[in-house]
Specification:
heterodimer; A: alpha+beta; 13 strands; 25% helix; B: 6-stranded mixed beta sheet; 5 helices; globular
Chain lengths: 191, 186
């Protein structure tokens, strides 16, 4: 979950510097800092399950990379008068073709993941999650999975398509973003 | 907000019977009961204001009907889903000659849902999905906590409206407009 912090605004560079002077976990949303608190265990288990399932598939088929929680992505969004945005997805997949040659960025990068997984916490409000989903899709993500451990549902968001809500017994598919990737929704909650 | 209740599943007809044996407010989602808790005051205020604004417009233009919260719409028979929006507008054409003394077996043209603090993202996303799938042309999700309105339409990106923006009836309710801030004014 995210908590609002002080009011001044930051650029991406200032934010990068700040992240190295603090031991807080932060996001930058339209120039403003949001502090991320440690998550509950239900959240933690789902993040690792999703990371493992996606990572196994992506590595086996040599499709690209899977990024772990807290990886900063600079989102090319916001109106002229708004500040910059650096978000950290819980899990993200980036296709090989969209990665730079040679080395991966040492800092935040403006490479928007093809697939983003966000796991909700009990304290997340509707608006906070809706804003995240909106930001990722606006920035160019092809698919966002919002996983809710409280009711064991996954909602699938794609640009220009109706949202799809899946229950535990349903099959979660990578569709054309991660072709042939499938898992049962229940696998995300397994422990 | 909705609270999960017992585990067995219901058909629309069984649910109709049940609703007459209980004084609970219920919805049926994929065959399972969801109990609706009374809303907080702010929620009621926003939903009430919306009913007045949209209601006045619809009546003055003789376009159709605005129904209050708790009106049941059958969105799907299999699995059985009966939902009750916070506000809905149905055009004359959609109502047609339908029998009105049961749950509506047609979808509204416009639905508004007001978010409660206890609503999870996925429960709201599920509602929006159900309404759009059933044929609702325009869904407004109104969040008093952030004073924003999210506008959902099939095949179009979600639009986020803030205080200074104008909420429009688009082609569903042509000519209807109100400031988002008006919905939240006390």
């Amino acid at each position: 979950m995210a908590v609002a912090t002080e009011k001044r605004t930051y650029t991406v560079d200032e934010f990068w510097e700040l992240c190295h002077q603090t031991d807080k976990r932060l996001e930058l949303i339209r120039g403003e800092l949001r502090e991320l608190t440690p998550t509950g265990w239900q959240h933690g288990v789902v993040v690792v399950n999703a990371t493992r399932l996606l990572s196994n598939y992506v590595l086996t088929h040599r499709l690209g990379i899977v990024l772990g929680a807290e990886t900063g992505v600079v989102l090319p969004i916001g109106e002229r008068d708004e500040g910059q945005t650096v978000r950290a997805a819980d899990v993200a997949y980036v296709r090989r073709e969209r990665l730079p040659q040679g080395v991966l960025p040492a800092r935040f990068a403006d490479i928007v993941p093809d697939l983003v997984v966000e796991v909700t916490s009990p304290s997340d409000t509707y608006a906070m999650v809706a804003e995240k989903v909106n930001d990722w899709l606006l920035a160019g993500a092809q698919m966002v999975w919002v996983v809710d451990p409280s009711n064991r549902q996954v909602s699938v968001h794609r640009p220009g398509k109706p949202v799809q809500v899946l229950g535990e017994e349903d099959v979660l598919s990578g569709e054309d973003v991660l072709p042939d990737f499938v898992c049962r929704v229940s696998e995300l909650f397994a422990w | 907000m909705a609270v999960a209740t017992e585990k067995r599943t219901y058909t629309v007809d069984q649910f109709w019977e049940l609703c007459h044996q209980t004084d609970k407010r219920l919805e049926l989602v994929k065959g399972a009961l969801r109990e609706l808790a009374p809303a907080n005051f702010e929620h009621g205020l926003v939903a009430g204001k919306l009913q007045v604004l949209v209601g006045q417009f619809v009546m003055s233009q003789r376009l159709g009907y605005v129904v209050a919260a708790e009106t049941g719409f059958v969105l799907s028979e299999q699995p059985a889903t009966v939902r009750a929006p916070d506000m809905a507008y149905v055009s004359r054409e959609r109502v047609g000659e339908s029998y009105l003394e049961r749950f509506a077996d047609f979808a509204p043209d416009l639905v508004a849902e007001v978010v409660s603090p206890s609503d999870t993202f996925s429960s709201v996303a599920e509602k929006v999905e159900d309404w759009l799938k059933a044929g609702v042309r325009l869904v407004w999700v109104i969040d008093p906590a952030t004073q924003t309105v999210r506008v959902y339409r099939t095949g179009q990106p979600t639009q986020v409206l803030r205080e200074q923006d104008t909420l429009s009836g688009e082609d569903v309710l042509p000519g209807f407009a109100c400031k988002v801030s008006e919905l939240f004014a006390r």
